[in-house]
């Protein structure tokens, strides 16, 4: 990287800081639109991650359109004085807008939602009986279906598993993201304080109880920001298989966290 490149990058950053300051004072729509254009790549990134592994009839272009509304909402509601990095806050709002649109479209057939509940109940029964995470073969036997049929079912449940981990550990907070519910505006590291210690412990415990491959998928997808295709290369399996593993992991996490909340 040349000095000119560094200087150009610094100039862009300074320009954005100045634009934020001016927009905060004037709330001018033209300045807001300039911010939207600058941060638009975030929408494409989030939409791509959400769309990976979804059924073919879900158009990523529609997800991007929904995400733009989330970005505009994030810009209008962002409070720089809270110390949270805008990109972190915006990605949550964009993802939330996309998920809200998916839910409102109700692209998941009622029969698939019913099967998802059947799987979750079977996981809960087997977990209580075995005192460990059941294998796919054991779950298939409990559901009285074959192993191949179970994996096909995971594929059908992909859309129901498109949830963020913060939604799993905070299901009753309404539409607000965890970033918006920070109680301490003076916290030195707001990102590290997105969830309270008890929620972190519950989530960590639930992840620790997953099968090893499920733990790897959750870690790489949610914490290392790898795509499902990239995770497939790491594990040496196809992207469709990673989709199945991701769906299975989310269903098991949801079941375990529900068990913990009811205990």
TrEMBL record:
Q: Would I find Phosphoprotein among this entry's keywords?
A: no
InterPro entries annotated for this entry?
RNA_pol_sigma-70_dom (IPR014284), RNA_pol_sigma70 (IPR000943), RNA_pol_sigma70_r2 (IPR007627), RNA_pol_sigma70_r3 (IPR007624), RNA_pol_sigma70_r4 (IPR007630), RNA_pol_sigma_FliA_WhiG (IPR012845), RNA_pol_sigma_r2 (IPR013325), RNA_pol_sigma_r3/r4-like (IPR013324)
Please provide the record's keywords in A-Z order.
DNA-binding, Sigma factor, Transcription, Transcription regulation
Residue ranges constituting the RNA polymerase sigma-70 domain according to the UniProt record: 62-75, 227-253
**A Pfam family reported for this protein in Swiss-Prot or TrEMBL:** Sigma70_r2
Entry-linked CDD domains:
Sigma70_r4
Q: What does the UniProt function comment say about this protein?
A: Sigma factors are initiation factors that promote the attachment of RNA polymerase to specific initiation sites and are then released.
Which family is this protein grouped under?
A: Belongs to the sigma-70 factor family.
The protein in question is named: RNA polymerase sigma factor
